[in-house]
């Protein structure tokens, strides 16, 4: 196995045992980036020299016997909304031409402190306002969409061009590309991972979180982000603790919403995976998802005016520098009233209350991450069995939005392929701050499956 | 207050015209060039058709989620800028 193919846990183990040096690992991943970048365009900026320097420093620290954790010397990509001092944060937008971040974002600082090595900034759908990341291609089929908006992060991890990455998630932007590229993505509880120094799409819905090839790796990154005593799932209940059996765990299987208008192959794979959770001892309970009629309205009612407010200045001064799809949404957002926004905020309060009741009946809810696998690049709509047509972006957001609105943590993990060979993702949701539980359930499932493969980038 | 309520209803109306879109955008400090009036009006109508369903809800005295905090969070003290 070449170093770029190793999971974070495997690479960390090899580095700890001095079987692999950070320089070898980082060089291997940088070579891999060179190979995949022309075809997949996962990166907006590659920081090769900086990465090689950091790898040498990491190696020296190990040689000198200085203590290090599992991320020490491990190559990572950061979505290009996340500030790293001295490097542009382009947001994959011409609006940001000439930008250079003055200081590290909180997450970049924490990962740097943990010894992770930045290999580059990954592409996003412009300013995270979209679900496809059109400049980037799917790691398993370059003719299909990467998903978004953290498309570059997901493709880089899936293709072995980063051992792990960070993304942001406002309406599924970590979970959607993770699902479409066959990797793991975690949207943590709202507010758990600090957003300081990360470009916003919509403040009240934005989350920062990890993408990796396994649940185990995802837990290691979350540990580094949240930190000991950070108010999150650290200590003896750490998400990287060994998974326990699932006996007695109540897994909620939605009777409504999450399996409506879902591709049959996606539904079959997710239900098979839920069956595996039952085999592991979980008790399956039927649940009804509350207020489903209002999910899209609340998501839009919050996101659209918040995004327009964030871009207020540049929308006036340099509107032509935005891509057409983003500009029109930002402009139209200026026509939403304060009444519409407040109604969405108040409906969100109701929804959060109802979801709290839901989590009295189930410890974890299991559902598809997205209703359809990666569509062909340029495809704009999905036609469902009932004859209805849905925009691709609307379809990809649909099953993600409830966790953004309510702030509950949600984990997407791969559970199979469709007949075209495209990955299928399952989403696990739990009550606020139950990341440790989510990761334990995901890890328990993962251990029943073959080890993940790096995409061949064909 | 009466006139404000009336105008909110007007701007949210599903039959928002390009002219009205331009006028309201301008009023919100975003002057739109003429070629943007029709597409912005069409997109605003679509957004409105999605969010209008919230008017069905009886929200009583339910407060908005965004709550007041006495202490500034880390994000509130310092955030990234466009």
UniProtKB/TrEMBL annotation, chain A:
Gene3D superfamilies: Amidase signature (AS) domain (3.90.1300.10). InterPro entries: Amidase, Amidase_CS, Amidase_dom, AS_sf. This is Amidase. Residues 24-439 form the Amidase domain. Pfam families: Amidase. It comes from Streptomyces tricolor.
């Amino acid at each position: 196995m070449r170093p770029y193919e190793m999971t974070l846990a495997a690479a960390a183990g090899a580095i700890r045992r001095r079987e692999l040096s950070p320089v070898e690992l980082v060089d291997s991943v940088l070579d891999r980036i060179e190979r995949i970048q022309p075809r997949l365009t996962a990166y907006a900026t590659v920081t090769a020299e900086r990465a090689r320097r950091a790898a040498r420093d990491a190696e020296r620290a190990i040689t000198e016997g200085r203590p290090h954790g599992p991320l020490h010397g491990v190559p990572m990509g950061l979505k290009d909304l996340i500030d790293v001092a001295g490097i542009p944060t382009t947001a994959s937008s011409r609006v940001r031409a000439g930008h250079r971040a003055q200081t590290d974002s909180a997450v970049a600082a924490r990962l740097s402190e943990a010894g992770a090595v930045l290999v580059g900034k990954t592409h996003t759908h412009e300013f995270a306002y979209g679900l496809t990341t059109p400049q980037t291609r799917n790691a398993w089929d370059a003719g299909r969409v990467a998903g978004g908006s953290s498309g570059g992060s997901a493709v880089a991890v899936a293709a072995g061009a980063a051992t792990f990455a960070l993304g942001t998630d406002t309406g599924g932007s970590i979970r959607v590309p993770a699902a479409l590229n066959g990797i793991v993505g975690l949207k943590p509880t709202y507010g758990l991972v600090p957003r300081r120094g990360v470009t916003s799409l919509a403040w009240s819905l934005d989350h920062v979180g990890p993408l990796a090839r396994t649940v185990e790796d995802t837990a290691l990154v979350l540990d580094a982000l949240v930190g000991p005593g950070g108010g999150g799932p650290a200590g003896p209940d750490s998400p990287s603790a060994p998974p326990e059996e699932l006996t007695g765990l109540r897994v909620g299987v939605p009777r409504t919403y999450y399996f409506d208008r879902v591709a049959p192959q996606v539904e079959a794979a997710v239900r098979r995976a839920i069956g595996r959770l039952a085999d592991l001892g979980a008790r399956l309970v039927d649940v009804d998802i509350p207020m489903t009629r209002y999910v899209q309205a609340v998501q839009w009612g919050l996101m659209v005016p918040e995004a327009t407010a964030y871009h207020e200045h540049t929308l006036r001064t340099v509107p032509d520098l935005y891509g057409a799809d983003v500009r029109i949404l930002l402009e139209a957002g200026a026509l939403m009233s304060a009444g519409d926004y407040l109604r969405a905020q108040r409906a969100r309060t109701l929804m959060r209350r109802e979801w709290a009741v839901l989590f009295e009946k189930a410890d974890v809810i299991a559902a598809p991450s997205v209703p359809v696998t990666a569509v062909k690049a340029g495809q704009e709509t999905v036609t469902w069995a009932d004859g209805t047509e849905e925009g691709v972006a609307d379809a990809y957001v649909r099953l993600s939005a409830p966790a953004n609105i309510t702030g509950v943590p949600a984990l997407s993990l791969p559970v199979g392929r469709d007949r075209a060979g495209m990955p299928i993702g399952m989403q696990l949701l739990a009550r606020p701050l139950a990341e440790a539980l989510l990761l334990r359930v995901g890890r328990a499932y993962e251990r029943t499956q073959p080890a993940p493969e790096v995409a061949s980038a064909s | 207050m009466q006139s404000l309520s009336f105008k909110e209803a007007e701007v949210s109306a599903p039959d928002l015209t390009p002219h009205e879109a331009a006028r309201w955008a301008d009023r919100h400090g975003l002057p739109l060039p003429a070629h943007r009036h029709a597409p912005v009006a069409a997109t605003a109508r679509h957004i409105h058709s999605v969010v209008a369903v919230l008017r069905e809800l009886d929200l009583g005295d339910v407060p908005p989620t965004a709550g007041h905090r006495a202490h500034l969070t880390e994000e509130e003290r310092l955030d990234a800028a466009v």
